[in-house]
Design brief:
There is one protein chain. It contains nine helices and no strands. The chain is globular. Helix content is 81%, strand content 0%.
Length: 180
């Protein structure tokens, strides 16, 4: 992302989200969204909308999260940005999953993972596998969910960047659910 104030706000929002401070993440990302809209920077707006959608999803504000994620997807597609396009697809999958709509979530998550695999992006492959593991669990496929969770954990272990508190919570939450 760019080097202006909007980019700084966006990154502060991402840091707040990764450290589980959702109210701060929302404030920073809303500032970034307003900044991107004022500058007519469609790429930055799409980038910020996707991450703001994620925070709103975590806060249970699914309608607004869906709207932002759909707009983000449309903008990335219009801009021809194939790098961030699967991020928006995976965001829509996560929102659908949280709403209990596995039929919508499954193909979106699979499509995003295929694109991450094509570019050999281990961080996002692990993230997509984690979403697919939760999908399998919600569909009553405990064995498949456990295998996908393990694949995600092993792959995530090969990445040198430390696991954030948010990521750790996601892994721990699903592992606990699978043990019940």
């Amino acid at each position: 992302p760019g080097g202006d104030q909007t980019s700084a706000w966006a990154h502060l929002g991402l840091i707040a989200q990764e450290t589980l401070d959702l109210p701060a993440a929302r404030r920073w990302l809303e500032l970034a969204y307003d900044g991107a809209a004022a500058s007519s920077d469609d790429w930055m707006r799409a980038f910020v909308m996707n991450y703001l959608a994620d925070v709103l999803r975590e806060l249970g504000e699914y309608d607004e999260a869906t709207r932002l994620a759909q707009e983000s997807l449309a903008l990335f597609a219009a801009l021809g940005d194939t790098h961030y396009l699967p991020d928006a697809q995976l965001m829509l999958a996560q929102i659908a999953l949280d709403r209990g709509d596995c039929e919508t979530a499954a193909p979106l998550a699979a499509l995003a993972r295929q694109q991450y695999e094509a570019r050999e992006d281990a961080v996002f492959i692990a993230t997509a596998l984690l979403v697919e593991a939760e999908l399998a669990w919600k569909q009553g496929q405990r064995g498949e969910a456990t295998a996908l969770l393990e694949r995600s954990r092993v792959l995530r272990g090969t990445i040198t960047r430390n696991v954030s508190p948010r990521e750790r919570a996601q892994y721990d939450r699903l592992a606990a659910a699978l043990e019940e």
